[in-house]
Amino acid sequence: MNSRRTRQRGFILIAMSVSMLLLLAVLGLAFDLGRVYIARNEAQVFTDAAAMAAVSKLDGTAAGIARAQAAVAHLPGRWNLGTSEFKGVVVEFSADGTKWESDPKDASGVKLARVIAPDNNLEITFLRAVGGPANLRIAARSAAAADPPRWIE
Amino acid sequence: MIELALSAAVMISFLAGTFQFGYTFYVYNQLVTAVGNGARYAATRTYRAATPQDVEKGAEAIRNMVVFGDARPDAAAVPVVATLAPKQVDVHWVMDPSGAPSAVDVSIREFTVNAVFKKFPFTGRPGVEFPYVGKYAPSEKEQ
Q1: How do B47-48 and A150-151 pair as beta strands?
Q2: Which residues of A touch B29 (CB under 8 A)?
Q3: Which of A52, A107, A39, A130 is closest to A79 using CA atoms?
Q4: Residue B3 banded pLDDT, cuts 50, 70, 90
Q5: Res A2: pLDDT
Q6: A31–B21 CB contact, under 8 Å
Q7: Chain A residues with CB within 8 Å of chain B CB
Q8: Taking CB atoms and an 8 Å limit, are A34 and B21 in contact across chains?
Q9: Poorest-confidence range of B9-18, B22-31, B103-112?
């Protein structure tokens, strides 16, 4: 009986170690995936606003393209629970939606604007302890058309 | 028994933390969606400004869109985020030099997520600014 009790000692520590790993994974899912979903949502709302800001400035001239780029650059927007600014935002323009350019040579036919927020690097806190990635890149993209201004993507 | 007591304390705090953050992030994500939907609506709706009351009515419709997902909710409407009320939503118009609206800021003024074990207050966020692309009608009245 005594030796059986001796053999059972420490069982809770072993069970606890295994459970902790599982709990860490569950906490990681709640904490890190929660932040991922929020970041994705924040980025999508920002690119929607930015695409509309860009397309509302298009007037078929190179100056209109420059105004569209400036409108996106000056648009306030934050992600990561409203604490970080968007960086590396890409603004592209197109006449027909097939070929997109950041700085189109011919601005006369440009009626579409697309905004991509690609550099939202979210640091993973708990999931990496159970084999998840250290960082996750959260990107979002929206496109809008002029006359009348409307979202198309 | 001591091992079990210590282990249980750690596990319970882990579970409480999981619920706390999971629920808070879930609610915050709902707020981001609600603010985004309200701002999209604000950016495209007609800006009627015959009187200051018409501007306020327009802002009220935007607040309702954020809170209920409907500009004219009925009395039984349920907020998309539990306990969120229209008075907690800020709508701020950015005007150009001619007096026409050029952008609209929509944000949550103050909201506290009650995650049972802890309360998380959010002030001024989430918020977003959308360019105004709707029809400017300075002499029209709100219905």
Answers
A1: unpaired
A2: 34, 37-38, 41
A3: A39
A4: confident
A5: 55
A6: yes
A7: 12-13, 15-16, 19-20, 23-24, 26-27, 30-31, 34-35, 37-38, 41-42, 44-46, 48-49, 52-53, 56, 71, 75-78, 81-82, 148-149
A8: yes
A9: B9-18
Query: Which amino acid is it at B95?
Result: M
Residue B94 has pLDDT above 90, yes or no: yes
Q: How far is B33 from chain A (nearest CA, A)?
A: 7
- Averages of pLDDT over runs of 10 residues in chain A (153 residues) are 62 84 88 95 96 95 96 93 93 94 92 95 90 93 93 90
Confidence (pTM): 0.91
Q: CB–CB of A112/A55 below 8 Å?
A: yes
The minimum CA-CA distance between A44 and chain B, rounded to whole Å, is: 9
Q: Is-contact A79 A101, C-beta < 8 A?
A: no
Tokens at A68, concatenated: 């569209």
Cβ contact B59:A64 at 8 Å = no
The Cβ of residue A80 has, within 10 Å, a number of other Cβ atoms equal to 18
pLDDT digits (tens, 9 = 90+) for B50-80: 999 999 999 999 999 999 999 999 999 999 9
pLDDT (tens digit per residue) in B21-41 = 999 999 999 999 999 999 999
> Closest Cα of chain B to A25: distance in Å?
10
Pick from A16, A11, A134: nearest CA to B14: A16
Q: Is B26 in Cβ contact with A41 (below 8 Å)?
A: no
Per-residue exposure over B118-131, b if at least 16 CB sit within 10 Å of its own CB, e if not: eebebeebbbbbbb
